[in-house]
């Protein structure tokens, strides 16, 4: 069973995992339609990131970025390709949403891709209570994006 800990953004293994995330996204949309945070963005104020470890391996990541008081955005959700479909994404998502609830966050929103590559992620988000919504924060309508949100209780 994976163990979830706060991210150490100086860990070379994590930096490699995050670069692989950006590389995975590159063929799914043009650059102006890719909204994943780079490492500098993940180091920014109001960003909380976690890593799922199994044994000595990094098997997943997730982050929350504060948009406004009581409203966070889900970012950098990734499961290692060889572990997709094994429940790691569900564990990470539950962990992040629990953290948001504990901090009094009432709403979590996300942007994900519209390509088939992202269909499993969209299904996971729907099962967790997310519904499609209009673009939020600085996002605009984009055929490569799907916007989702959930209210936390």
UniProtKB/TrEMBL annotation:
Domain N-acetyltransferase: 4-153
Coiled coil: none
Signal peptide: none
UniProt KW Acyltransferase keyword: yes
UniProt GO MF annotations: acyltransferase activity, transferring groups other than amino-acyl groups
Superkingdom to which the source organism belongs: Bacteria
Keywords: Acyltransferase, Transferase
Protein name: GNAT family N-acetyltransferase
